[in-house]
Amino acid sequence: MDIEKIWDNPNYTDQARQIISAIQNFPEDSKIILVVRHSHVKPKRLKDFDYKITPIGREIARKFGENLPTERPIRLFHSKMNRCQETAEKILAGFENIGGNGELKGEFSPLYDIGMTPEFVLNEVKRYNPFRFFYRWMAGLYPPDKITPLLEYSQNAATLIWNKLDSAPERGIDIHISHDLHVLALRFGWFGFPLRNKWISYIGGLALVFNKDNISVFNIDIDKSVSIDFPYWWKR
After folding, report:
1. What stretch of H or E contains 46?
2. pTM (whole model) above 0.90
């Protein structure tokens, strides 16, 4: 397996490589939050919910870890699903392989628990498609006993994920490994980034830093960081 060729393949790692580059441009003394999708998978059926990452996925995750800056300690949080835990473990292995200091913190509820009925969501995705399902969720067209409203989920997740940064080591990176649907929801619910007919790819997602008066957020859609005002609901 030619991992260098895989790592340079935009079909697999374009967004992951964008995030690596973005980290280099954040202030040296900052603490960074990443919220990313798990690595490469190939589920046999849509209803196979707790599948693992592929051999390619393991190598991509390891390579991602090997490209992180060693001067920044990392902590890894993940969804309860196997594919997210494996991604976290391989990122950590790659990072430690280059002399980095990291810690696997384990399962973290906002990275999985949307408050949804899986069967309902799967049926809606089949009935429409992933994009239309997401737009309908954004619009609040689903009852809360089937899936928590998107803005409610994203605001609750911010309280849990953003506050974790207080205990992070200096210059540290908190890496949260979740799912494409969750990352899309947090991009929109936190910062108003629209869905541009471009899904979240493997280890793609968000990178952000808290400043005194705003938040610097790397936007994969335009391949650069932008300054965003603190949401009105965020109590610092």
Report:
1. none
2. yes
